Amino acid sequence: MSAGTYYVPEQSRLPIWASFGLFLTVFGAANWMNGSDKGPYLFFVGGLVFATVLWKWFSIAISENMAGMNSPQLKRSYVMGMQWFIFSEVMFFAAFFGALFYIRTLALPWLAGEGDGVDNPLLWPNFTAEWPLMTTPDMALNGDAATRLGPKDSMTFPGWGGLLGWLPLWNTIILLSSSVTVHFAHSAIKNNNRKSFNIWLGVTVLLGVIFLILQAEEYIHAYNELGLTLQSGIYGTTFFMLTGFHGAHVTIGTLMLFIMWMRSMLKGHFKPDDNFGFEAASWYWHFVDVVWVGLFFVVYVFG
Amino acid sequence: MAHGPAKGFTRWLYTTNHKDIGSMYLWFSFAMFFLGGMFALVIRAELFQPGLQIVEPNFFNQMTTMHGLVMVFGAVMPAFVGLANWMVPLMIGAPDMALPRMNNWSFWILPFAFAMLSSTLFMQGGAPNFGWTFYAPLSTTYAPPSVTFFIFAIHIMGASSIMGAINIIATILNMRAPGMTLMKMPLFVWTWLITAFLLIAVMPVLAGVVTMMLMDIHFGTSFFDAAGGGDPVLFQHVFWFFGHPEVYIMILPAFGIVSAIIPTFARKPLFGYASMVYATAAIAILSFVVWAHHMFTVGMPIAGELFFMWATMLISVPTGVKVFNWVATMFKGSMTFETPMLFSIAFVILFTIGGFSGLMLAIAPADFQYHDTYFVVAHFHYVLVPGAIFSITAGVYYWLPKWCGNMYNETMGKIHFWLAFIGLNVTFFPMHFSGLAGMPRRIPDYNLMFADWNMISSVGAFLFGAAQVVFLYNVIATIVSGKKATDEVWDNPEGLEWTVASPAPYHTFAEPPEVK
């Protein structure tokens, strides 16, 4: 390491504006949810401020790198930043996977009277544990008067006969393929093959979009035909929260890869030995892919 | 980079300097400490006598809730991050934090988050009133509308913590001066490295649990609603999976501070450096498998009770290693008792008392008696006040001359110490007795039999509050008109921070120092 080469940026207006934008976004969201008319405006203005700052921030970081201000040591800081950010995302999903595990394996059987507890059969008579949970405790107790209703149908494995028409299987194939194509793109840029990089990255973005369209199709199907909604008891809750947060991450990941693709197509960014912006986005993409594999098994196959 | 600080107020808004940002964190924390302290004094004033005299029960609940939230997320955590910002680059010979702009962002989220959280006090239905642990369904079905603002405040302060922790990890792993191997790092750096790992691991889980609340409240999900197949106890599991590592986030950096101060004033190197590092790591790992000891009375299977009981007790082994190491460091040292040392010795003794009451609470069958009583309140205040708060205070006295170049007033420091020491014990020691006698937590009125202990606690609380005014005065007086401090400040202290001038120049270690 040579002396005095670590680039410490000058004063910057970015952080305070990012904080303000973030605050306005969540403040607006909270007002909106609490029924205030001003809520949506605050939310969208905040989101706009926040998005603008992020755009500016990334473009400054990119131009600093292209101006050669980033030493190898500084680049390592960015690499570590991305790695630990992904770790934090892993832990966010862990909370929801953990909730699903707890509900399926422990809470529902206890609610149905298993274990040491004596009060649950008194509170919720006639309730039997099952997964997917079609008959909620409320329905078991109150019948037609129940307000917490389960779904009419679930997303679980349809059996081998219906395998080829099963959307989650196709989504799995699409997402796994996209992990391979983004890897091809990575290899291509390392070999300085710009054309191949652009093609494979474009294919990856396309696969991401197709995944999202199919996911939207699945949600519409769930709402309209299966009677499966966010409000369908704990099954609907866990199904939509897990797949929904995953879908949100796919959206972010697709957007990231799309921006990388535009940078390469329009500006000719990325070099064989200097392409961390793309690499970080591809790591994020692989992470999103791994989460899907987990979802595929615990939410769909063994759902 | 520029040589000096920018002119004018915008210096603080736009800064990328770790010392500026460290100072802002510390002042912010100080302000929150007084705000949270005022909430505490409302509580103690109401509890001075049995009966309802000053506040309505609902407002009392808002005070206990806001006191906890402000102290944990607004006072203790930002103070440690502020100390990390100031000291970690100085201790490892780095020119700044690894990602200086993100560093400023982490800070500036906090004033917005706490403005939003505090504003709930003036909202329809009042502030959050469900306790700082915000158990469902109190915080969902029965919560005031302001809970939504509370949830989003938690979200953005969590984002701030995660970014701060990422920055600290990247700084420690990537920015050490040549020769500063991991096992040569000061313990404050080590404990912060491990704390940052804990933060990144559990703050997202906190974000997850408040998101589940948000969905239950506004979007009809059933996470914590048994009628739909959910479980309110699920809330407690997810919350405490965050919550237990969180309490170590509030104590591990304290271990690091005390491990820096005791050797200086005992004039001996720290005893058992390597074992300190391993003990810290062991405590951090164990913190992930003990969470349900907060929930012994919730109706867990016996196997769960036993597992969490034994796992919890295991923690006393590495913690004991630390306490013995501090004592061994002092053993046969030529000790002097300047203010930082007084706070550090009080830390060792009083934190150990808090540790012992923790061990009592860890015994599942006994916990059925102690649960949700003032004994629990006594326990966690003994680990947080003489633990986290005293270590931060000790750190401020120890490093303040390095920060501002002036020496604090030793007499006033000692007055502060003794007032705080007496005040804190008078406040919290009687709570052990009222708790064992059966006084429940979080009540504005109580049985006559608890009156004496409560009156004593309240007197102690106001004494402790007064002590902090002395602290504030001493800090300001030092900065404004303290006597000039030497570069070394203390008698041959160890560490790179003492090799730079006092006050530390705006930029230090642009050329990394050579560490032998």
Describe the structure.
The complex is a heterodimer of chains A (303) and B (516). Chain A has helices at residues 14-33, 38-66, 72-111, 120-123, 137-142, 167-190, 194-224, 233-267, 276-301. Chain A is mostly helical and 303 residues long. Chain A has two domains: 12-69, Helix Hairpins; 73-112 and 153-301, Four Helix Bundle (Hemerythrin (Met), subunit A). Chain B has a single domain, classed as Cytochrome C Oxidase, Chain A (Up-down Bundle). Chain B has helices spanning 10-14, 18-46, 57-92, 100-119, 147-174, 187-218, 232-249, 252-266, 273-286, 302-314, 316-330, 339-362, 364-370, 374-404, 410-436, 451-481; strands at residues 406-407, 483-484. A two-stranded antiparallel ribbon of chain B has the order 1-2. Chain B is globular, with a radius of gyration of 22 Å. At the A-B interface, α1, α3 and α8 of A face α1, α4, α5, α6 and α7 of B.
Give a quick rundown of the structure:
With 303 residues, chain A is mainly alpha-helical. Chain A is built from nine helices and no strands.
> Strand share of the residues of chain B?
under 5%
Assembly status: heterodimer
Provide mean pLDDT of chain B, rounded.
97
The first-to-last residue Cα distance of chain B is 28 Å
Query: Helix tally of chain B?
Result: 16
Number of domains of chain B: 1
**How many individual domains of chain A?**
2
Cross-sheet strand order for the largest sheet of chain B: 1-2
CATH superfamily of chain B: Cytochrome c oxidase-like, subunit I domain
What does the radius of gyration of chain B come to? 22 Å
Mean pLDDT of chain A: 94
CATH hierarchy class name of chain B: Mainly Alpha
Number of strands of chain A: 0
The CATH homologous superfamily of the largest domain in chain A is named Cytochrome c oxidase, subunit III, four-helix bundle
